[in-house]
Design a protein that fits this description.
The complex is a heterodimer of chains A (about 325) and B (about 90). Chain A is of the alpha/beta class and about 325 residues long. Chain A contains 14 helices and eleven strands. Chain A has an eight-stranded parallel beta barrel, surrounded by nine helices. In chain A, strands 5-6 form a two-stranded antiparallel ribbon. In chain A, strand 3, helix 3 and strand 4 form a beta-alpha-beta unit. The radius of gyration of chain A is 19 Å and the shape is globular. The relative contact order of chain A is 0.13. With about 90 residues, chain B is mainly alpha-helical. Chain B is about 75% helix and about 0% strand. In chain B, helix 2 packs across helix 4, helix 3 crosses helix 4 and helix 4 crosses helix 5. Classes of the chains: A alpha/beta (about 325), B mainly alpha (about 90). At the A-B interface, helix 1 and helix 14 of A face helix 2 and helix 3 of B.
């Protein structure tokens, strides 16, 4: 079966750049576009609307939003409105959220599993046109209903990393966005999601498991690694000790990166990134190396490969390179 | 600068290639301050496939020079359009 290719964009640039990249990605054969949701960047829904206006085929969604910053009813409303702009091309990507980011805006993150699950329940009921009286552990509604109809089903992808969230994602998600690049992490995710799917009688083809990777491609592997290093520095800094241990990352080196990032010394943090770190937390290299690594993930059971930040040293050239050399290798 | 004249100096069979490169220069430029109307025109040209017409290229050339003249000239050089690069340098 063909492997789908998705691409992630962080809306840190003006809307027109994201819309242009979306068109280029669509023309190069990408089937999915994911836009990150962070309060410090441009608004995810407005960015997605811009992408929707200038594309024709690509499926797009939040990659990912969270249940806390916006009430789930409004999240459903935003996605439903996007679906009017691009019927049948919209999905919801929802995860538990990032603790540090939420703390920065004074939002408490309690009961992440329940919050994600309840958001999905509310979302599906509202999209189905129901009047929703709901009492959950985290959210409640008393007769919420949309004044407009949504004619098609809108798939829900769950952003998941930990075992419990992966299992739940397998149970309730139409898709799963696994934030990982290494085969061992993807194998674990597929296994845990499978457990959840088994519990509700789903088959593997019922859930689109996507490897949401940090990715960097260049004909020159050194340039690919150079572009990947800043993103990998942040991943290492944010990884708990067991994750670093699993990938044999020296904890002292990780501490060095954390300390440098904390004081804003980016060159020092990036300089401390080792090839082992890049290998553990990204798909990086020449198109040929990337093809080999993607093929290994496909064998593990993923249905979608998401090209995440940084994409490459030059984003447009990298998208073109992926479209010309990598995607055609996975069409059958 | 007469950007339409610069475009006329480029053989028509290379307009597609030049259009791709100029879009790359514009998207890669650190300076992203262009009027919304200009940005929307570029997006519409990309969507409608008119970015490699004379009008579309003239617009792209002007925006590329304004946002990142150095990389515009480098790109023109790589495409062996040295006469156009020279005209831009001379202003």
């Amino acid at each position: 079966m063909a492997l789908k290719f998705g691409i992630e964009f962080v809306p840190k640039d003006p809307y027109w750049k994201l819309a242009a990249y979306a068109m280029i990605a669509e023309n190069q054969g990408f089937s999915n576009l994911w836009v990150t949701d962070h309060y410090g960047n441009r608004n995810v829904y407005i960015s997605l609307a811009a992408a929707a206006m200038y594309t024709n085929k690509i499926t797009f969604g939040t990659g990912v939003t969270n249940p806390w910053m916006i009430n789930p009813v409004i999240t459903a409303q935003a996605i439903a409105t996007l679906n009017e702009l691009a019927p049948g091309r919209v999905v919801l990507g929802i995860g538990a959220g990032d603790k540090t980011t939420l703390e920065a805006v004074g939002v408490e993150m309690g009961k992440p599993m329940a919050a994600v699950s309840e958001t999905i329940t509310l979302f599906r009921k509202l999209i189905a046109g129901e009047t929703v009286a709901f009492q959950g552990e985290v959210f409640k509604t008393a007769g919420a209903k949309f004044n407009f109809k949504i004619k098609n089903k809108i798939p829900v992808y769950v952003g998941a990393q930990g075992p419990k969230m992966l299992e739940m994602a397998g149970k309730i998600g139409d898709g799963i966005l696994v934030n990982a690049s290494h085969p061992s992490d993807i194998a674990f995710a597929v296994k845990m999601a499978g457990e959840g799917m088994k519990q509700v009688g789903k088959k593997p083809e019922d859930v689109d498991i996507a490897a949401y990777t940090s990715f960097s491609v260049n004909e020159d592997p050194k340039k690919a690694a150079k572009a990947a290093a800043p993103v990998v520095a942040f991943i290492v800094a944010g990884s708990p000790a067991p994750v670093l241990e699993k990938h044999n990352i020296n904890p002292a080196k990780a501490d060095e990166i954390r300390a440098a990032l904390k004081v804003g010394d980016f060159p020092k943090a990036i300089g401390a990134v080792t090839p082992d770190m890049i290998n553990a937390f990204s798909i990086c290299g020449t198109p040929e190396i990337c093809i080999e690594k993607i093929a290994a993930l496909k064998k593990l059971g993923i249905g979608q490969f998401v090209v995440g930040s940084p994409v490459g040293q030059n984003v447009k050239q990298s998208i073109d390179l992926i479209g010309q050399k990598i995607i055609p290798q996975f069409q059958n | 600068m007469d950007y339409a004249k610069f475009v006329e100096m480029v053989p028509q069979d290379k307009w597609g290639l030049l259009s791709e490169r100029l879009i790359g220069v514009i998207l890669g430029a650190k300076n992203d301050k262009i009027p919304n109307s200009v940005a929307n025109t570029i997006l519409m040209d990309m969507k409608n496939g008119t970015a490699s017409t004379k009008k579309g290229l003239t617009n792209l050339m002007e925006v590329a020079v304004v946002l990142d003249v150095e990389n515009t000239i480098i790109s023109l050089g790589e495409l062996k359009m040295l006469n156009v690069a020279a005209e831009i340098i001379q202003g």
